[in-house]
Design goal:
Helix 1 packs across helix 2. By secondary structure, the chain is mainly α.
Amino acid sequence: MDQAKKVAIYALAVFALYTIITSPDRATELVHVGFEGISSAAHGLGNFMTEVIR
C-alpha cells in the first residue's frame, strides 16, 4: 500500500510539472480555479456553522 501511494504521488508530481511546462497559462488557470473552489467551500462551511450556532 505504501508503494502504491509513492507511485501515485510521483505520477501526480510528473503530471503537474508536465502541465506547467507545456501550458503555463492553463496551469495558472487550474490553480486559480482550485483555490477559488477551496475558498468557496470554506465560505460555505462558515455559513453552515453560523447557522448551526444560531
